[in-house]
């Protein structure tokens, strides 16, 4: 027959695990929401779509997908942007 002490210990350990998993899930959920906000950017004289994409792409990554995301999100038919345009950029990773 199992001792009540080991049963109690297992239940306590299980409850601790469930509480820790719940706390982690809450913490992970709040961080994901905060980082998913799009970035608003006003085009300055001399800016290019390529330079904006490079500055919003992780280092050592190809900026071409970012260029396409910016174009599609902002309904830009080509690659020409003008000073004063307001762009919505993908969220920072």
Keywords:
single chain, 93 residues, mainly alpha, Membrane-bound Lytic Murein Transglycosylase D, Chain A, 2 domains, two-stranded antiparallel ribbon, 3 helices
What report would you give on this structure?
The structure is a single chain. α2 (49-55) crosses α3. The protein folds into two domains: 1-36; 39-89, LysM domain (Membrane-bound Lytic Murein Transglycosylase D, Chain A), CATH 3.10.350.10. With 93 residues, it is mainly α. A two-stranded antiparallel ribbon has the order 1-2. It has three helices and two strands; from the N terminus they run αβααβ. The N and C termini lie far apart (54 Å). The chain is rod-shaped and about 75 Å long.
Assigned CATH superfamily of the largest domain: LysM domain
Secondary structure: number of strands: 2
Q: CATH topology of the largest domain, which one?
A: Membrane-bound Lytic Murein Transglycosylase D, Chain A
CA-based shape:
rod-shaped
Biggest sheet strand line-up: 1-2
The helical percent reads 40-55%
Distance between the termini: 54 Å
**What amount of the residues lies in strands?**
5-15%
Total domain modules: 2
Q: Number of DSSP helices?
A: 3
Main sheet specs = 2 strands, antiparallel
Whole-angstrom Rg: 24 Å
- Topology as H/E string? HEHHE
Topology:
Blueprint: H1 4-35, E1 39-42, H2 49-55, H3 64-73, E2 86-89
Antiparallel strand pairs: 1-2
Helix pairs in contact: 2-3
Compact summary:
The chain is mainly alpha-helical.
